[in-house]
Every structure is written in structure tokens, then in C-alpha cells.
């Protein structure tokens, strides 16, 4: 046990079995221990009589610290220097590695020889030679690196860029390999002395610092290296094949040497900007938009692959940002102006999806795309609505256009809410640029789908069509126009029995009620109620007529319509046959007997009949309108009549009569002959019964031309809507003034816009206010003309 513990290594124990030998029993085993000459105490195996007893190897400190030979430090450094030189020059080391790593130390004064091997560097470090050793090693490495710069400075200028880069890469790889090997020899120095001195770089960092200082930081060498790398990247961008592993190694070198950003990245991004700015300008002129978009996508993919293959990860964000800016950001408006309409017109969903994807990456890209998308819808839709020649197909075109735009938002624009809302706003804007007409045509379109004989769609398909119609219907401001035309068409379908399906009718009614409220559909529901009540009344009437003493040969069916629910029909006095007049009086007597105080008004324009007719071919039944019936019945009395004679006998209005005669004599089922022949009915024409008429069917439906809407009817319906709107404006003004008592003109107009559900111009509101003032519902303030007072 040495007392000079500060100069000696600490002792260590190596337990061999699980049990320890108690320290207080040490004296009992003194006779059983053996000491060797290097201070190792070995416990004898005789210390315990029991099998498996624990053994303990105790290594004790030297009593005195061994001394180094006088030339040991110098000799050892010479060997280490030779070894480092051999590594740097890639030659064989003169000394055996074991000899290099294991140098024997001998204390001649005490004749104590170390019997175990101690590493040379560790020995030097243990005897405080570390500072000198580190300094010598650094100087040795620096001299070697300084010698390497000459090969690059003197490298032939005419030599290829690639050979220079390969030389630089080989030098760098050699330097890294040499530094690793040198560090492995001086590992103890690196992990003790260097680690304890925070200001000193490690051996590896020293190697990097020397390479950076003496080779890479050399202006000419660095410029030639970076120029070469940039040239190789440019070649690759132009489609040539380059050595990516070489580029990865060289750029890794710049990154490891911490000069990547200032020496390479800044120049690389500048060159990238310049390249893609020129490329964007050129290709925008040369290529169409779909091709250009695919090119941009390919370029972005290439640059991302470049980052993965050899560029530093930190370059990715600024690199991709530069490419997107130069190829997309600078040309957003031009791309959209040149190609968006082409893509949408051609329904090129792949390119539209790519367009959205690319624009979503650029600052301000999606708002710009959104605006052009909105403008396109307004423009395209405006053409559909604003072209009177296309009115026949307007609604179908609108439905197709809406489906197309929905598919684009769903499949290409990632269901972006902003784009969906912009589409709705655009539809609402263009569809109301032409007041009333879209609403009227939508009503007619629904009529064509709900009318009997429409075999285009099954019930499920019809339901889907109605749902799509309701989407277009939502965009319309003047819903009262739709209601007026829809009500008129519904009346025809119900009265003439032309409705395809009661379920479909009620489904449409339910959709309108859900969309516009119960007030909107109350009259339409009343029409259905009237038809159901009429069926009950007719059952009772049949029982009533059967009890009559003289039952009629004519079967009469009457629909009782509540005047407030149904469209307004212009009364027309016609001359009915006596049998019909008598039957009308019988029904009138029956009905008023049950419902006293009511007034019945017959509407012959809506009547229809089935006539049994005899031709040479045989008996037929003709399904005709009441006007057609009156004309045909005349031919029971005589064989030929002129237009004037028919008009005088029937009392039918001239225009209606001409259309009726045209349907009977000029249509597909010509039960009358016109003389002279022709498509139009003239004043001097004469008509006779066509006894030679032939048809494959027994019951023939003759086209009821009077059921088709005339221009006068359209104008009349529109005028009624306008009149109803005036009443609604008057009622709203009185309602607001009654509640507020006094109100300024601007506030009154604002309130009216909030309450009215149809579009109205300020001038029209002003006229209605003036009208109410004239009728003493309200008055102007005497001092302030813009102030109104309610008159109780």
C-alpha cells in the first residue's frame, strides 16, 4: 500500500465469482497469497476448501512511478511521425503495427520492467507530453496539406472540368481516410488532452480546418471547383447524364467544411433563377398551357430529385421556391388568360388538377385562379342565358354546365370551399342578368319532365333531374316568375290529365316548399286539393244523374277550381250544343244545391272531349279539345263550311279558331279536308269532313295546338307577375310605415330590400311610394321632403 497515491494509478479489483472476500479477514490469508515482481497480487486457489468459492484478482499500484528512458519521447515521436508520413504518402509503415502501438517501458534504476504492453501515445500523454505531441501532429498534418495545393494551382487550364473535379474528390477522399487513420493512432490524445481543452479542435476537426484553410479557401481552386459543379448541374438540367456520386461527394465536402452556403448555394440559386426565368419566358411563347404545366411539374420533380441525390437538404426550400416563382409565379395571369378557358371547355381534368396543385404552391396562386375561375363561369354562363336564340336549350345547357363545374371542383380543385362558393356566386350573378326569362324557362323545363309521355327517364332519374333543377332554381332572384309559369303549366297538366306521375308532382312540390317556404306553395297545394275534392263531387254527381228521369247520353266530368289558387283565365263565350248547355245547368243546380252562395264560372278554353266518329274504315274515337269538338260537331249538320260560317256558329275567337282548324286539317291526323290545301288557314278556305281518314289506332289524340303557350300568354303571365309585385311592394311599404310611423326615404328603401323576395329597381320603389302618397296611405314631411309619415 503506497502512501503516494497522487502519483500512482488507482487500484482495481476483478471479481471472478459472485461472493466477495471480506476485507476484515485479510490477515487470515496472508500465508496463501503470492506476489509477483510487477506488483500483481494473486489469491491462491487454496484459500477455500469449498468448491465454487469466490476468487478475487487484486491489481495493486506501483510503489514508485516508473521512469522513462531519456530518449523515449524522441524515439517514440520519430516512430509516430514516420507512421503518419507513411499514411499520408500511402506507403507501407516501417514498423510493425503491434510494435508501434506497444512500446515497452523499463525502469533501469530499480530494474523494474513492465511486463504488460502500454500504447505509445498513452505513455507520452501520461508523462505530460500531450501539448507538444498535439502541436507536432498539427504541424505535420499542416505541412502535408499545404503541399497538396500545388497540384490544383498548377492543374492545366485546358484540362476538362470533370478531370479537375475528380482530382479534387480524390484528394478529399484521401484526406478523410488519412485523418481517420491518424486519429485512430492518436485516439488517446484526442479523448483526453484535446477533450479537456475546449479551445482545441479535435484531430478530425483539425483535419477539416486545414483542408478548408489551405485548399478549399484558395480563391482560384474554390472558383474552379464550384464552376465545375455548376457546369455539371447545368449539363444534367439540359438532359445529359452526369456522375451524381461525384457531385454528392464534392457538395458533401463543401458542407463538411462549412463553406457550402457562401461558396456554392448562393451562386447555384442565382444561376437557377436566371435559367428558369429565361426558360419560363421562352416556353410561355412556344408551348400551349397544358404542355407548359406538365413541363413545370417535371422540372419541379427533377429539382426535388436533385436535392435527394446530391444537394444539401437546406437547399431544397429556396431552390423549389425559386423554380415555382420563375416558372409559375411570374406567369400566373398569362397561364390563366391563355389556357384556363381551353382546359375548362375541353374538360381536361388531368391538367386542371395539375394547375390547381401547382398554383397552390405559389404565393397568391389560388386567389388568382379563383378570380379567373369566377370570371370564366360568369362569361360562359352569360352566353347561355343572354342568347335568345338558345332559349330552347338554355335550361339543359345550364344543368350540363353546372354538372361540369361541380366535377371540376370535386375532382380537380380538391373540394375547396372557396371555389365552390365562388361558383355559386358566379351562377347567381349571370343567371339574374336577364330578368324573368331563366325562371320562365326553368318552369317550362320542369313541365316537360313532369308531363305524361316523357319516357326519357325512370322515376329515380326523374328525381335526380328535379334535384338538379332545384339547384339552378336557388340562384334565381325572381322566384315569383317561376311560380306563375309553373302554376299555369301545372294547371294544364292537372286539368287535361297530362301529369306523368302524381308522386313526381308532389315530390317537386315538396322540394319547392322546403326551398321557399309554405307560403310559396300554398296555392299549388290548393290546386291538388281542388282536384281531389272534384273527384268526390263527381262521384256524387253521377249518383245524382242516375236518379234523373231522363239521363243524358253525354258523360260529363267537371273540375271545380278555387279561383284564388288557379291561374287567371280570360272568359270566352262560345256557342255550346243544347245537350251540353242542358248538362251544365243540371250540374249547376246540383252543385249550388249543396253549396249555396257560391258562383260558378265555366272555362271552355280548358275543356276537352272524346268524340265517337264513323269513317269508311270504321268507327274511331277522337280525343280533342272543346274548341275542336264544337267545330267537328258542325259536320253532323252539313258537309262543308267556310271559316266565317264556323266562326259564326261556334263563337270561337278568330285566332283560336284558326289554330283549331289548323290542328284538324293540317296536322298529322287530318279529319277535315281544307280547300285549297296549305299549312295556314286563310279567310277564303273551306272545310269538309274527311271520310277517307285512316289510322292504325282506335283512339286518336289530335294535337291540341291551343294548349301550346302563345306569345300573348307569355306576355300576359309576365304582366300578372309585375302587377302582383306592385301589390307586394305596396303592402310592404304600408306594413313598414304602420310599424315605424316616421321614416326617411333611404331607410324605407333599405327595409323594402330586406323584405321583398324579388329583384326591384329603386325607381320602381319610388313610383310605388308616390302612388301610396297620392292615395293618402302616407305623406311627406313638410320641412323635410325625404321624410315620410304614416297616415292612419
From TrEMBL:
Gene3D superfamilies linked: Cullin Repeats (1.20.1310.10), Cullin, Chain C, Domain 2 (3.30.230.130), Winged helix-like DNA-binding domain superfamily/Winged helix DNA-binding domain (1.10.10.10)
Keyword presence, DNA damage: yes
GO BP terms: cellular response to UV; developmental process; DNA repair; proteasome-mediated ubiquitin-dependent protein catabolic process; regulation of protein metabolic process; rhythmic process; ribosome biogenesis
Keyword Chloroplast annotated: no
Residues of the Cullin family profile domain: 437-665
Recorded coiled-coil stretches: none
Any Gene Ontology CC annotation: Cul4A-RING E3 ubiquitin ligase complex
GO MF term (any one): ubiquitin protein ligase binding
Entry superkingdom: Eukaryota
Keywords: Biological rhythms, DNA damage, DNA repair, Host-virus interaction, Isopeptide bond, Phosphoprotein, Ubl conjugation, Ubl conjugation pathway
Pathway per the UniProt entry: Protein modification; protein ubiquitination
SMART domains to which the protein is assigned, alphabetical: CULLIN (SM00182), Cullin_Nedd8 (SM00884)
Family: Belongs to the cullin family.
Protein name (database record): Cullin-4A
Protein's organism: Esox lucius
Amino acid at each position: 500500500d503506497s502512501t503516494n497515491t497522487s502519483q500512482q494509478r488507482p487500484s482495481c479489483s476483478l471479481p471472478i465469482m459472485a461472493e466477495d472476500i471480506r476485507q476484515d479477514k485479510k490477515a487470515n490469508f496472508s500465508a496463501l497469497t503470492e506476489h509477483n515482481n510487477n506488483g500483481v497480487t494473486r489469491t491462491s486457489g487454496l484459500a477455500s476448501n469449498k468448491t465454487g468459492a469466490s476468487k478475487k484478482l487484486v491489481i495493486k499500484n506501483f510503489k514508485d512511478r516508473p521512469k522513462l528512458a531519456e530518449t523515449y519521447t524522441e524515439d517514440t515521436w520519430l516512430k509516430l511521425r514516420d507512421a503518419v508520413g507513411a499514411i499520408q504518402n500511402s506507403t507501407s509503415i516501417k514498423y510493425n503495427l503491434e510494435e508501434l502501438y506497444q512500446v515497452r517501458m523499463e525502469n533501469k534504476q530499480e530494474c523494474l520492467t513492465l511486463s504488460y504492453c502500454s500504447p505509445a501515445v498513452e505513455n507520452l500523454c501520461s508523462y505530460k507530453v500531450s501539448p507538444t505531441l498535439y502541436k507536432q501532429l498539427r504541424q505535420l498534418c499542416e505541412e502535408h496539406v499545404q503541399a497538396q495545393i500545388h497540384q490544383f494551382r498548377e492543374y492545366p487550364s485546358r484540362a476538362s472540368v470533370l478531370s479537375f473535379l475528380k482530382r479534387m474528390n480524390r484528394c478529399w477522399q484521401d484526406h478523410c481516410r488519412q485523418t481517420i487513420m491518424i486519429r485512430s493512432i492518436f485516439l488517446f490524445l484526442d479523448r483526453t488532452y484535446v477533450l479537456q481543452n475546449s479551445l482545441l479542435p479535435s484531430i478530425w476537426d483539425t483535419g477539416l480546418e486545414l483542408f478548408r484553410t489551405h485548399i478549399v479557401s484558395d480563391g482560384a481552386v474554390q472558383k474552379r471547383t464550384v464552376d465545375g459543379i455548376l457546369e455539371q448541374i447545368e449539363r444534367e438540367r439540359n438532359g445529359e447524364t452526369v456522375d451524381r456520386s461525384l457531385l454528392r461527394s464534392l457538395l458533401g465536402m463543401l458542407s463538411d467544411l462549412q463553406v457550402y452556403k457562401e461558396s456554392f448555394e448562393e451562386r447555384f440559386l442565382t444561376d437557377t433563377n436566371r435559367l428558369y426565368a429565361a426558360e419560363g419566358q421562352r416556353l410561355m411563347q412556344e408551348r400551349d398551357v397544358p404542355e407548359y404545366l406538365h413541363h413545370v411539374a417535371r422540372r419541379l420533380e427533377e429539382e426535388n430529385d436533385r436535392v435527394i441525390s446530391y444537394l444539401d437538404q437546406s437547399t431544397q426550400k429556396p431552390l423549389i421556391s425559386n423554380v415555382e416563382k420563375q416558372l409559375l409565379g411570374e406567369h400566373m395571369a398569362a397561364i390563366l388568360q391563355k389556357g384556363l378557358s381551353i382546359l375548362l371547355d375541353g374538360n381536361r381534368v388531368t391538367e386542371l388538377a395539375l394547375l390547381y396543385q401547382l398554383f397552390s404552391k405559389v404565393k397568391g396562386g389560388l386567389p388568382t385562379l379563383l378570380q379567373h375561375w369566377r370570371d370564366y363561369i360568369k362569361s360562359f354562363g352569360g352566353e347561355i342565358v343572354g342568347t335568345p336564340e338558345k332559349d330552347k336549350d338554355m335550361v339543359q345547357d345550364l344543368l350540363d354546365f353546372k354538372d361540369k363545374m361541380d366535377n371540376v371542383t370535386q375532382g380537380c380543385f380538391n373540394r375547396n370551399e372557396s371555389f365552390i362558393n365562388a361558383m355559386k356566386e358566379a351562377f347567381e350573378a349571370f343567371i339574374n342578368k336577364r330578368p324573368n326569362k331563366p325562371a320562365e324557362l326553368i318552369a317550362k323545363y320542369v313541365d316537360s319532365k313532369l308531363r305524361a309521355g316523357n319516357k326519357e327517364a325512370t322515376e329515380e332519374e326523374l328525381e335526380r333531374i328535379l334535384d338538379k333543377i332545384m339547384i339552378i332554381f336557388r340562384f334565381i332572384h325572381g322566384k315569383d316568375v317561376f311560380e306563375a309559369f309553373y302554376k299555369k303549366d301545372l294547371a294544364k297538366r292537372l286539368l287535361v290529365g297530362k301529369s306523368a306521375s302524381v308522386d313526381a308532382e308532389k315530390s317537386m312540390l315538396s322540394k319547392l316548399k322546403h326551398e321557399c317556404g309554405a307560403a310559396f306553395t300554398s296555392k299549388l297545394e290548393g290546386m291538388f286539393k281542388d282536384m281531389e275534392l272534384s273527384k268526390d263531387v263527381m262521384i256524387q254527381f253521377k249518383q245524382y244523374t242516375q236518379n234523373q228521369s231522363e239521363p243524358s247520353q253525354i258523360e260529363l266530368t267537371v273540375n271545380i277550381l278555387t279561383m284564388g289558387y288557379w291561374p287567371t283565365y280570360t272568359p270566352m263565350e262560345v256557342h255550346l250544343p243544347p245537350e251540353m248547355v242542358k248538362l251544365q245547368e243540371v250540374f249547376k243546380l246540383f252543385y249550388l244545391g249543396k253549396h249555396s252562395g257560391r258562383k260558378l264560372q265555366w272555362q271552355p278554353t280548358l275543356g276537352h272531349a272524346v268524340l265517337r266518329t264513323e269513317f269508311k274504315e270504321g268507327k274511331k274515337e277522337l280525343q280533342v279539345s272543346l274548341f275542336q269538338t264544337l267545330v267537328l260537331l258542325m259536320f253532323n249538320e252539313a258537309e262543308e263550311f267556310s271559316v266565317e260560317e264556323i266562326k259564326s256558329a261556334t263563337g270561337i275567337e278568330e285566332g283560336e279558331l284558326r289554330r283549331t282548324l289548323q290542328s284538324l286539317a293540317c296536322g298529322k291526323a287530318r279529319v277535315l279536308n281544307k280547300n285549297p290545301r296549305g299549312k295556314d288557314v286563310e279567310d277564303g278556305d273551306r272545310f269538309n269532313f274527311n271520310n277517307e281518314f285512316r289510322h292504325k289506332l282506335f283512339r286518336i289524340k289530335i294535337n291540341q295546338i291551343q294548349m301550346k303557350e302563345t306569345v300573348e300568354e307569355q306576355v300576359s303571365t309576365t304582366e300578372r307577375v309585375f302587377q302582383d309585385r306592385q301589390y307586394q311592394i305596396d303592402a310592404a311599404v304600408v306594413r313598414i310605415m304602420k310599424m315605424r310611423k316616421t321614416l326617411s326615404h333611404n331607410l324605407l328603401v333599405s327595409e323594402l330590400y330586406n323584405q321583398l323576395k324579388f329583384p326591384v329597381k329603386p325607381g320602381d320603389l319610388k313610383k310605388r311610394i308616390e302612388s301610396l302618397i297620392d292615395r293618402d296611405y302616407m305623406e311627406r314631411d313638410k320641412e323635410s321632403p325625404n321624410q315620410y309619415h304614416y297616415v292612419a
